[in-house]
Amino acid sequence: MKPRNAKEKEIIEISKSLPKLNDKQISYAYANSVVHKGFRTGKGTTCMECGHTFKTEKDKCSCPNCNVELEIEKRRTNKLKTIGYMSIFTVREEYQIIRHIQVTQYYQKYKPAIYDNFEVIRHFVTKEKTYVVSRLMLQYYQYTYQLFNLGSGLEIRNKSNVHYITSDCVYPYKKIHPIIKRNGFKGELHGFDSLSLFEEILRYNKAETLFKIKEYDFLSFCIYKSSSYYKYYKQILICHKHNYIVKDVSMWIDYIEMLKRFNKDVFNPYYICPVNLKESHDTLMNELNRIIERDKAIKDKQYAIEKEIRYKEGLKVLATKRNKYRNFILNKQGFTIIPLITINQYKEEGNALKHCVHSSHYWDRKESIILSARKNGVPIETIEFSLETGQVIQCHGCNNQDTEFHDKIINIVQRESNRILNANGHY
Questions:
Q1: Distance between CA atoms of residues 360 and 266, nearest Å
Q2: For the chain, is the Cβ count within 10 Å smaller at the N or the C terminus?
Q3: What is the DSSP letter of 45?
């Protein structure tokens, strides 16, 4: 991507002026950015660095031929490709520059390992913004080990989550920007990726303080989980003041949240620095579960009372319909249409046609009446008829599907709507 403004043009010029990797840097990357392996089979252990085969039962050992420290795996693979990353820290003008070197390791059994290296990303970090100069990302990188198109050039790019790379090693000869040094960085990353750490301690005072007082676990939670956890910053400072080490940050945060629910003082070291975090956490959790169960029982009881009231009101509605439509029946064009006026009738209709006319309490609806269209005594479709408008609201057969008699049944009901509304006799 072409630089779009003077700042990006300046970044490109600085990027071009950076020196190429020297032999020491390349050697350090090959030695430390990837794991050196030996493959064990029934015939012996093969060093994948030099191809030498020897006998050993250890999981870690040195190759007797090339003296490289190996991690031994039981594997019959003859070929293997692994990728690692090394970071180089340097400074130009106001920029802290992080150079990421991709090291590719090619193993083939009984042959010396082959290494290749490419510089894939350069981060230019300032307090205000981070600029990225990188190679083009592969479109389907999530399905491969390869993140970058190594044939593309180092160009200015829009920063994305993929550009946050956790390196396997950092070149020991570093140049660190004075502001980053002032903000607590002494050369060790402590498990953070370099870009996330530098951005955080440059731009957030709370992150700077947490890094300086070595609250790495909590800072990691804030960086990689959610910045919303900075709301516990004051509690962490209290813990640090009282030499209390939070070993399980996730459990400790849950514990603080439960303290808030019990209206406890979350700035009191007596509460937030428990001697046994797990025991205190579980005690509050059990008490909270008891309260939740109690509240649920109260709600269930209230719901049961309301349900009983609705049921009784529904029975009154059904009794009114039963008195009005007790003797009502329509015999038209080979169909018998009758109203459902008892709960058992609703239940039988729902079971016969496999729909929810009973389970959804259609029988307690004041504004409509439910009719059953039958042929030779067998339910065909169920009709909901509005007592307010005199229109069919819905009409369905088995599994809420329309039958071949659907239109005919609706026409019969609509033609006889006045008689249904008045419920005046046997037709």
A1: 48
A2: N
A3: E
